[in-house]
Structures are given as C-alpha cells and as structure tokens.
Design brief:
Elements lengths: L3 H15 L4 H10 L4 E5 L5 H8 L5 E6 L2 H10 L4 E4 L11 E6 L10 H14 E12 L15 E4 L5 E8 L7 E10 L6 E8 L3 H10 L2 E7 L13 E8 L2
Length: 246
Amino acid sequence: MVDRSFADLALAEFYDTLNPWGPGDDFHLGLIQHAEAVLDVGCGTGRLLGRARQLGHGGRLVGLDPAAAMLVQARRHEPRVEWVLGDLRSHRWNGAFDLVVMTGHAFQELVTDDDVRQALRAVHTALAGGGHFVFDTRNPGARAWEHWTPEQVHEIADPSGSVVHVWHDVQPPVTGDRVTFTETYQGMHWERPVVCRSTIRFLGPDRLVHFLAEAGLTVVEQYGDWGRGPLTPTSPEIITLATKAG
C-alpha cells in the first residue's frame, strides 16, 4: 500500500480517463440545465458542473467533495463554479438549492445506516421546498462486483504518455450488502503500484425508499438505466428522483 495522499492524486489524475463522459452525465446535465441552483455532492473532478457552466448555466453551481486532489482538477476545468472541500457533515445549506445530485455511484460510499441517514437529512435541509434530489446506485440484483477481477485490466496513459494498468479485485467473502475491493494502478516506470482500498454498499430499491421517506423525501421515479427504462430485479442501475415537499 502507499500513502493516501499519493493514492488520491493518482485517482484524481486518471478519474476522467477511466470514467469517460457517458449517458449518465447527459442524464444529470439535462436536469442541471433546468435548475437555478444546484449542489453536486461528491463532485469529483467537476466535469459535470463545469460542462453546465460552459453551456451557459447562469445560476448557482456548487461542487462538494472531500478530496482536495479532485478539487484541484475541478478548478482547472472551470473556475466559475463554487468548489467546496468537505462533505455533507461539514457543510450546511438551508433551502439553498432546487436540485441536489450525487453521481458516479457516490451514494454507495455511505456504508452505514447512520451515514445514510445523516446524508439524507443534510440533503433535505439543503433543498428548497419542491426541490429534487437525484442519485444513482448500482442495483444489487445485477451483482456487478462479480466482474471486478484482476483479469479485467484497463490500459490508460499518464500525462507523459506512459501506459498505466488499472484493475480491481474484490476482497472475499462478500456478505450482506457491503463489498470491499482494491483498485490498483501500475505504471510502467513507477517504482511501485498505487493501491486504493474501498468499501461500498449495495442497497436495494425498497431500502432506498425507506431511508428517503425517513428523511422527508418522496420518491417520484426510479429507473433501471440511463434511458429511463423500468427498474427490474436485474437492471444495472437504480436511478432515483426524489422530492422535498413544498
């Protein structure tokens, strides 16, 4: 293992290459462009709010992320957005936003019931009456973690053009709704690999609805894919749109 700061820098540097713009980004961008004030929780490198600003969004855009290295990339993308270091426990907004988004399966990093409840209470507080909360999680019925193996290697290039290999490895046993895995980066000219260890939670749709209701948020829609297809037991995604009463 390497120190966390070095790992964070590597993740931030390669995040957009490993996760290129896709239909999920288009889905959220369409909602953002129709909202006056938006909070992106776990904004990462900031490309979503940055794209919204570059396309002419004239309202308030705030990106929140606990990783300073990610926000360095975000400020490079677009300085005309409010980039805030921290999380929903360290910052509080009262009725300031008509849309809150959590993209890139960031919701799954809330691994305990208390984590989920605290985050959803904070989202409820941040939303104005009638505001919406949109987030995506992997559907546990699709069992995506079964494909996270060292044999599935991605090749990307670092800023110098050198090849970097990236792979995932699930740490057995997988029990309950939590999955622990490592993400390894190995550069051709690096002294040692960068290994990031994470645990994420796979909540099903009924549990999500329950937690949202506890926080005073009502589910409006749940989709199974980015084309707004129906949510089925094996859909790859659970895309949830919830609202705060006006």
